[in-house]
Structure to design on (447 residues):
């Protein structure tokens, strides 16, 4: 597992009380997260990964799953 | 943590004591803000303090912003609220607005040419913000039609721009609405218990045509994270305002207890009064530390800042209710009389329990972090 994915998974595990979250699981659709999580996720990506989340990036498709977040971050680097 | 007295803090204090304090009772009694004070506020630059310098703001850091709210909170809840709302909206536009929105509105908000209102609450939905019903319907390629009601909106009576949270097909959205838009009706709401100069209003949007370019952030993200970014700043400001209110009440109470005599003693020398004053002072210190802590988290852009701000707001609003109530008690009958600041702050304090999230909503949100 790469470092970025590790960081993302660590952040999520601190926020969601769930085991066995698959990298492709849609956290929003499956109801694992609430809306406050969305705020924290944006802050995490911006301040801890160092990727600015622009207005056009504010789409659920960028944040649905571990894979989606990783893909989004990689696309901005 | 301690804060060194600096020039900006001296300016806040001087402005607050000399320009705002003389009007505080009038604002409470007449439920209005004198034009002279509004003009002074606009000139001071304190309205848009969080706005970046490139747009004419002071670009304060979050600690200094907190101290400004504390200083103004010491004298007048209404004016502290005006600064709070202006900066809530400014922070949202600065963070999620596009370049055109920023260059159009932020300079006007910094100079006070545009007063802003934050329009989230509706007659049927307050804490349950996810179910807001005001609706945005796309019309053609470049317009929305806005219909719905907003209620309990601070400064609705004088605002020039309204930041409205409304529902579109894609979910909740945040949009800038100019008050001159055809179809807007504003009904003043007066005679509130406290914060009586906040010029509240109910706003009806009747088939208002709004350019799609006024949308702030993407469709469907109007509440999270856009509106919540503003609410976060609102809660932080309120927490510091509560600290300011409590400081004044403690100060007045200490002075009073050293002049008022009962049973041949200054009441300060009665043990039960000492106990009350001590509890007031320690609760106040704790709240101030939570505010400084929250400010530090905000300044460091920590993802945990949201939780720290919630704790500060929850504790400070409880603290100010406790401190103002004790201040009124210590003053006996004179604490119940209009004109005594402790009476005004006692009423204002109750508002702090409701605004930007009730105690119960704070508890529910904080519990998520436990």
């Amino acid at each position: 597992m790469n470092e970025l994915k590790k960081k993302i998974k660590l952040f999520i595990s601190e926020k969601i009380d769930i085991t066995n979250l698959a990298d492709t699981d849609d956290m929003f659709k499956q109801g694992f997260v609430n809306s406050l999580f969305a705020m924290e996720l944006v802050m995490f990506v911006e301040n801890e990964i160092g990727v600015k989340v622009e207005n056009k990036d504010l789409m659920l498709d960028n944040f649905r799953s571990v894979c989606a977040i990783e893909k989004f971050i990689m696309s901005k680097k | 943590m301690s804060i060194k007295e600096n020039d900006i803090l001296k300016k806040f204090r001087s402005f607050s004591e000399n320009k705002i304090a003389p009007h505080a009772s009038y604002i409470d009694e007449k439920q209005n803000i004198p034009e002279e004070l509004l003009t002074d506020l606009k000139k001071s630059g304190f309205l848009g303090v969080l706005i970046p310098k490139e747009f004419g703001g002071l670009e304060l850091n979050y600690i200094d912003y907190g101290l400004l709210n504390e200083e103004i909170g010491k004298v007048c809840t209404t004016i502290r609220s005006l600064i709070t709302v202006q900066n809530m909206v400014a922070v949202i536009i600065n963070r999620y607005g596009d370049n055109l929105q920023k260059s159009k509105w932020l300079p006007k908000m910094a100079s006070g040419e545009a007063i802003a209102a934050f329009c989230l609450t509706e007659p049927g939905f307050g804490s349950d913000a996810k179910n807001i019903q005001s609706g945005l319907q796309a019309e053609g390629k470049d317009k929305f039609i806005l219909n719905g009601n907003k209620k309990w909106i601070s400064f609705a009576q004088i605002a020039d721009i309204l930041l409205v949270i409304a529902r579109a097909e894609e979910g909740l959205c945040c949009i800038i609405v100019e008050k001159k838009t055809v179809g807007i009706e504003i009904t003043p709401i007066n005679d509130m218990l406290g914060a009586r100069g906040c010029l509240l209003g109910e706003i009806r949007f009747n088939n208002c045509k709004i350019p799609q370019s006024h949308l702030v952030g993407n469709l469907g993200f109007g509440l999270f994270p856009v509106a919540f970014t503003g609410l976060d700043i609102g809660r932080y400001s309120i927490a510091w305002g509560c600290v300011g209110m409590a400081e004044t009440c403690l100060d007045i109470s200490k002075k009073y207890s050293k002049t008022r005599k009962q049973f041949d003693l200054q009441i300060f020398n009665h043990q039960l009064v000492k106990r009350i004053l001590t509890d007031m002072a320690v609760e106040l210190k704790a709240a101030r530390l939570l505010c400084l802590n929250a400010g530090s988290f905000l300044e460091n852009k920590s993802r945990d800042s949201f939780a720290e701000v919630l704790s500060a707001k929850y504790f400070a609003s409880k603290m100010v209710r406790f401190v103002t109530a004790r201040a009124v008690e210590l003053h006996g009958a004179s604490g119940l009389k209009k004109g005594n600041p402790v009476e005004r702050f006692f009423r204002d304090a109750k508002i702090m329990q409701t605004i930007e999230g009730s105690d119960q909503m704070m508890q529910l949100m904080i519990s998520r972090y436990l």
About this structure: Residues 27 and 35 of chain A are 11 Å apart (CA to CA).
